[in-house]
Design goal:
The complex is a heterodimer.
Chain A (H helix, E strand, L loop, with lengths): L3 H8 L5 H37 L1 E6 L10 H13 L5 E5 L1 H8 L2 H7 L5 E6 L3 H14 L5 E5 L5 H39 L1 H9 L4 H38 L10 H38 L6
Antiparallel strand pairs in A: 1-3, 1-4, 2-3
Helix pairs in contact in A: 1-9, 2-7, 2-9, 2-10, 3-6, 9-10
Chain B lengths: L2 H5 L3 E10 L2 E10 L4 E6 L5 H8 L7 E6 L2 E3 L4 H9 L1 E4 L11 H11 L7 H10 L15 H13 L5 E5 L7 H16 L3 E5 L11 E5 L2
Parallel strand pairs in B: 3-8, 3-9, 6-7, 7-8
Antiparallel strand pairs in B: 1-2, 1-4, 4-5
Helix pairs in contact in B: 4-6
The chains are: A alpha+beta, B alpha/beta.
Chain lengths: ~300, ~220
């Protein structure tokens, strides 16, 4: 028995089948890459902001009469931090690293500059930071201790990240709308060129709902192969981008890249399902309106 | 007209007025009983096809009422209109056939759309024999002549055994012998209970039982 939906599929877009596969692959890839970038940038920036906002830099300066901070003071501080490692993570910035980042390594060799003792702690609890500060003051025999929460310096970076996210989201929205219009125009052209056939089916008693449902599904079936290929394509491209240009915040996780790729793939599948569902609803509403308007001829 | 009066007719048009470009070329009141054979004749562009369009409910009149089985059809009663269309066999001038499908498949579409779940094979063979389509049933439409296409259009309209057959000059493209055959077929279907309304310019083939409506505009 002849399947009416298959017939619609054959009748519609009979000549430009490959064109629709190709264009749906390109446009869905464009949309999907924006989703992948948005998702990964969102995750990257969020992780970075959360990590940075929990960090506080402590700077212990030597007394005026000292050439360098005595080793026993720094050892006591390190020992104290190691003892409290369960509640706070810490990292001591060694002399070489500070000199290198400040670009004064060679100068120090000549003039014998002595640097303060600098370390970072990472915790989300403000009380712990205060406790550490008080303890360090005691341990260091009331030397000058300065603390700089990184949170205070993140405002501008957060605002920049937000702007980037809005731009990516806006681009995603624009391409999605353009895609919807493209599909709509292809559908319109197909409706006009097959109008006689559709009118015949209406005269035979086919309902506007039945026609709109069947045609929408036929169109989606045309778009689906390109969309599926584009998901895998974008997923591979995004994982390669992360591999080459991304930052791994989870140093101890060996599965970071695999998990990231899998998460991106799952996200893209969910996104494409939602996109196609929205497109189906949009097409069905449009086609239903189209056929209802032509249910009776105007005389 | 009250509901009991209209129920006696399968179809009735009351004070219909069809306006084209602000003019009023056609005013009709007509009652169709079950088993009627109505022929609408008139000059070219006299509104025959337009009137037939009203019968297969592709358009609603700007003035007047249409009743089907005692119920008034309005633009809001689309479900009843659809049901009516499914029970009607329509033959139009220059009707659309799908060129890349064969004869059998083109006729099958009507079964699919009109949800004919019965076994169609025997009915299909019957119609192929009536219309001499047996030899070309697997031929694609694009390879057929105009007269063969017209036969396929007629076959498609008759496949679901419709109670009401509406035909707009079904004799178009057919040769003299086949016109006779088609008119005989319509007469036979009418005698078996189908109601037939058709437009034509060729009245030579019809008997006196037909109701003839002449459109003078």
């Amino acid at each position: 028995m002849l399947n009416f939906q298959d017939l619609l599929k054959k009748t519609f877009f009979i000549t430009n089948n490959n064109f629709i596969h190709g264009i749906s692959f390109i446009v869905v890839s464009l949309i999907a890459i924006h989703v992948a970038i948005f998702f990964n940038f969102y995750k990257f920036s969020n992780d970075w902001i959360v990590g940075e906002s929990e960090k506080t830099t402590f700077i212990l300066s030597k007394n005026g009469n000292e050439k360098v901070i005595p080793d026993d003071v720094t050892s006591k501080i390190i020992k104290y931090l190691e003892e409290n490692q369960e509640s706070t993570k810490f990292r001591v910035l060694d002399k070489d690293l500070i000199q290198e980042s400040l670009g004064i390594k060679s100068i120090d060799d000549i003039f014998g500059l002595s640097l303060p003792f600098v370390f970072l702690i990472q915790t989300s609890n403000d009380k712990i930071i205060d406790e550490v500060y008080t303890s360090i003051l005691k341990i260091s025999d009331n030397r000058i201790v300065e603390k700089y929460p990184h949170k205070d310096q993140l405002f501008e970076v957060v605002s920049l990240f937000k702007r980037i996210k809005v731009i990516i989201f806006f681009m995603l929205l624009v391409i999605s709308i353009l895609f919807a219009f493209l599909v709509l125009n292809i559908t319109k052209a197909a409706l006009i060129s097959n109008y006689k056939f559709l009118e015949m089916t209406q005269i035979m008693g086919e309902s506007s709902y039945g026609l709109s449902k069947n045609i929408s599904i036929s169109i989606l079936k045309r778009i689906l192969p390109g969309s599926i290929i584009s998901i895998f394509f974008v997923s591979i491209v995004s994982s390669l981008l992360i591999k080459f240009f991304g930052v791994n915040f989870y140093f101890f996780s060996d599965n970071f890249y695999f998990e990231q790729t899998l998460k991106t793939l799952i996200l893209l599948i969910i996104f494409i399902l939602i996109l196609l569902l929205l497109l189906l609803i949009f097409l069905m509403l449009y086609l239903f309106y189209f056929f209802e308007k032509r249910f009776f001829d105007k005389i | 007209m009250n509901k009991t009066q209209t129920q006696n007719y399968i179809f009735s048009l009351e004070d219909i007025s069809i306006e084209i470009k602000g003019e009023t070329p056609l005013k009709v009141s007509l009652k169709v009983k079950k088993g009627d054979f109505i022929i609408i004749k008139g000059k070219n562009s006299s509104g025959k096809s337009m009137l037939l369009k009203l019968f297969y409910l592709k358009c609603l009149p700007s003035k007047g009422k249409i009743f089907f089985g005692g119920n008034e059809l309005k633009s809001s009663s689309k479900a009843s209109v659809q049901e009516f269309r499914k029970q009607t066999g329509v033959i139009l001038q220059n009707d659309f056939l799908i060129p890349f499908l064969n004869v059998y498949q083109n006729i099958e579409i009507a079964c699919e759309i009109q949800r004919n779940t019965n076994k169609i094979e025997s009915r299909m063979n019957e119609i192929f024999n009536w219309l001499s389509l047996q030899d070309i049933k697997n031929e694609k439409i694009q390879n057929l002549s105009n007269s063969q296409k017209q036969k396929v259009v007629i076959a498609r309209a008759l496949i679901n055994n419709p109670k009401l057959i509406l035909a707009d000059q079904p004799e178009t493209f057919l040769d003299r012998d086949f016109r006779k055959k088609i008119m005989f077929l319509f007469s036979s279907l009418n005698k078996l209970g189908s109601t037939i309304i058709m437009t034509t310019n060729d009245l030579s083939q019809f008997d006196e039982n037909c109701r003839i409506i002449t459109l003078d505009t």
